[in-house]
Amino acid sequence: MEYSKADSKAFVARAAEAQDAGNLDEAHSWYTKAARAGSSDAMFNLGLLSADAGNLDDALSWYTKAAEAGNLDAMYNLGILSETVGSGQAMYNLGVLSADAGDLDCARSWYTKAAEVGNSRAMCNLGILSAEAGNLDEAISWYTKAADAGDSAAMFPLGFLYAQTGNFNEARPWYAQAVAGNSNAMFDLGLLSADAGNLDDARSWFIQAAEAGNSDAKRELAKLISRKSWIFKLFSWIRVNV
Q1: What pLDDT, in 10s, does the model give residues 196-233?
Q2: DSSP state of 153
Q3: In the chain, which ranges are continuous DSSP H helix?
Q4: Which has fewest Cβ within 10 Å: 69, 121, 144, 217?
Q5: Helices 56-68 & 40-52, crossing angle to 10 degrees?
Q6: Would you tell me how many other CB atoms lie within 10 Å of the CB of residue 27?
């Protein structure tokens, strides 16, 4: 059943009355209806009720929903609770919310706290922030930690940064690990192979990338085919004329 904004306000009022009267189950029911209608205040209050009842996982869930809906009180409580219970995911979510709001210093702080308790997505995002700030060594360090923790999203940018800094031997294995479903990784492996003179390998990677929809790979493949054709013609001429 769909509820309107007006409905949500009425539901919150009913919930508050029930809560004041000590009828917490009834309050929870009305707040839940209001939350379904999009009320961030109801989501926040459900977080409070859950926390008071000792249901910290539910509290984190409701605070997160309220925070994502822009509720500042929920963001504050989410921060306190996430640190109290050591929830890396909640800290990561606060980092995302802060980044979306343009507060990169706050985002970095939450990502760092999340990374400290093992959240690989936070490590990856710290790599992004570091790279955007021009701190490539720091970015490589964070991407490496994320990739070592099994985060495949960190593997391609890690390979890319190594390639950008001229460390092709380090770039290649990370590209190879990132290659599943990643046409950019396939394309860059093609470039590395071509630069190393392994044209058959380059052709293979460019074909895979092109088949995955990478337009740059299609252009490089065409150039490679043209190059190999020219080399074949040259050798043919040499055999005949030299």
Answers
A1: 777 777 788 778 888 878 788 778 777 766 655 434 43
A2: G
A3: 5-20, 24-36, 40-52, 56-68, 72-85, 88-100, 104-116, 120-132, 136-148, 155-164, 168-178, 183-195, 199-211, 215-241
A4: 69
A5: 160
A6: 22
Say which residue the tokens 């460390």 belong to: 167
Tokens for 163?
């390639």
pLDDT, one tens digit per residue, over 13-50 is 998 999 899 989 998 999 899 988 888 899 988 988 88
| Pair 139, 154: CB distance under 8 Å | no
143-149: long-range contacts (C-beta < 8 A, 24 or more apart)? 145/115, 145/120, 146/120, 146/121, 147/174, 147/177, 149/118, 149/120, 149/123
The span from the CA of 220 to the CA of 227, in Å, is 10
pLDDT of residue 231: 41
State whether CATH 1.10.10.10 applies to domain 1-85: no
CB 87 within 8 A of CB 78: no
- What residue has token string 């390979």? 159
Gyration radius of the chain's alpha carbons = 27
Q: Say if residues 229 and 202 touch (Cβ distance below 8 Å).
A: no
